[in-house]
Amino acid sequence: MYKILLLACTRFPKDVSVSRERLRRAVMKNSGLTDELEIRKSVERGMYVAREIEGMAALHKYRVLKSRYKST
Questions:
Q1: For residue 44, what pLDDT is reported?
Q2: DSSP calls for 20-65
Q3: In this model, does residue 14 exceed pLDDT 80?
Q4: Distance between CA atoms of 31 and 43, rounded to whole angstroms?
Q5: Which GO terms describe its cellular component (predicted)?
Q6: Mean pLDDT throughout 62-69?
Q7: Rounded Cα–Cα distance for residues 5 and 42 (Å)
Q8: Rounded to the nearest 10 degrees, what angle do helices 2-10 and 16-29 cross at?
Q9: What gap in Å lies between CA 39 and CA 17, rounded to an integer?
Q10: Which of 25, 23, 18, 17 has the alpha carbon at shortest distance from 1?
Q11: Are 11 and 54 within 8 A, CB to CB?
């Protein structure tokens, strides 16, 4: 999960070091979970965040391309 989110953060349009530090803090906060249900919820939330980051990166890319090739 950490590697998936870290890769998604590199595609995020913001600063990579800030995203990496926030990801690290979030993972360390949840590292002590022992309940299986809480672990599953955390993993599902992480996958949702990864999909959202990918979507935001694609939207950013689309907007940049649209502004560069805008027909006037």
A1: 93
A2: HHHHHHHHHHTTT---HHHHHHHHHHHHHHHHHHHHHHHHHHHHHH
A3: no
A4: 12
A5: mitochondrion
A6: 90
A7: 13
A8: 160
A9: 26
A10: 23
A11: yes
Rg of the Cα atoms in the chain: 16
Backbone angles phi, psi at 56, to 5 degrees: -65, -40
| CA distance between the termini of the chain | 44
C-alpha dihedral (27, 30, 32, 38), degrees to nearest 10: -140
Q: Which residues constitute the domain of residue 20?
A: 2-68
Residue with tokens 């990496």: 20
d(CA 53, CA 5): 9
Quickly tell me which residue has 């690290």 as its tokens: 24
pLDDT digits (tens, 9 = 90+) for 20-53: 888 889 889 988 999 999 999 999 998 998 899 8
Q: How many domains does the chain have?
A: 1
Q: Is 10 helix (H, G, I), strand (E, B) or coil?
A: helix
